[in-house]
Amino acid sequence: MTFLTVSKVHHTYFSSKTATEALQDINLSIDKGEFVSFIGPSGCGKTTLLSILAGLFRPTAGKVLIDNQDIHENADLSIGYMLQQDYLFPWKTIEENVTLGLKLLSKEKEAANELASKLLSDVGLPPVEKKYPRELSGGMRQRVALARTLAVDPKILLLDEPFSALDYQSKLKLEDLVHKLMKEYGKTAVLVTHDIGEAIAMSDRIFLFSARPGRLHQTFEVPEEVRSLTPFEARANPSYSTLFQTIWKELESLEHQQSS
Known about the structure:
- This is NitT/TauT family transport system ATP-binding protein.
- The chain contains 10 helices and 10 strands.
- It is of the alpha/beta class and 260 residues long.
- The protein has a domain at 1-77 and 188-260: P-loop containing nucleotide triphosphate hydrolases (Rossmann fold, 3-Layer(aba) Sandwich).
- Strand 9 and strand 10 (215-221) form a beta hairpin.
- The longest helix is centred in the last third of the chain and has 22 residues, at 238-259.
- The termini are far apart.
- The mean pLDDT is 91.
């Protein structure tokens, strides 16, 4: 069932002297519960499109619908946005950081704290509710950021390179965790990444964009035998390697066209 629809989206950035076309005629749809990735060369508009999906600004032209509702005309639409940095408030405890969105929704304090404890447990953390962000490692802080994002029960999760600042071991562990929780919670997710391997290991489909202006170049279906595995296990599957080589060659071709 189609959950998110991007229809004829264009976007141009204007300054006092120039107009830069970032996206051109983007059309795509994402099913409920699907995990997709956006990849492409630098300047292909991946993050611009993710910001539009988040409702941070309107596209110059076109529409984005979630559950057949225009994202810019529904103030109650909950969208989760997880970034490369965790953006935890250093002066607040972990519990206070996780429940911040719930307080804005006027959730009763005791119920909010109970939910925070459950989510922190779900993301694999020990009891850290009364600690402060400075007392946690980078990987643990990103787990807190994930718990905070899930706390408001968002309709969709938008992930903008959330693992790229972590060491490789923490990155792989968080990939597995996010993949598992998205399936368990039945969430729809969009990941922006430069990492082809990460996109294949985590996604059901991959959208490859070309640059200047950003256009949807090709869509890749991740084989079922890869999708049924955890991201860590997926990397050892022969179909993973085959798809990696296919996407790599296509991306190399796009970057060659861009530079010539």
